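Quick question, first post here. What does this chain look like in 3D?
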Amino acid sequence: MKKSSKGVGLSKLWSRRLELRAGGNKLWAKGDKLKAEGDKLKAEGYKLWAKGDKLRAEGDRLWAKGYKFKTEGKKLTAEGDRLWAEGAKFEAEGDTLKAEGDELWANGVVAARGNIKMEWTNWNNKKRDYECHLETGEVFK
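> Answer (accepted):
Ran it through. Tokens below.
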């Protein structure tokens, strides 16, 4: 072994190089181990990502389906409101006809029997009307 002109022997440098490379190889092995573990985690992450994409797609599909039902429900509600309003209109017309009928009846009683007492009792749900009892004892059902 010859010493270089600077006083450091090549064999010592070679030994040091080998030590450093051995240390580097250990770190590389450790790094390879960590990279392998990282690859496993990445693979698991990709699986979860794919599962998330699948669930999100399913959620989007369900959201769209739910929105479709909501839209249909709004249409039906609007139709129900329209029918309700139409029914209320008929009820109002019915109330007008009932009032005309009651007025006609009252004027007829006054014309036929004079100004006598009338009493409305015994509601009949089927007819949606009361019986009329006159002071004369007459009962109209």
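The longest helix spans residues 10-113.
The chain has one helix and three strands.
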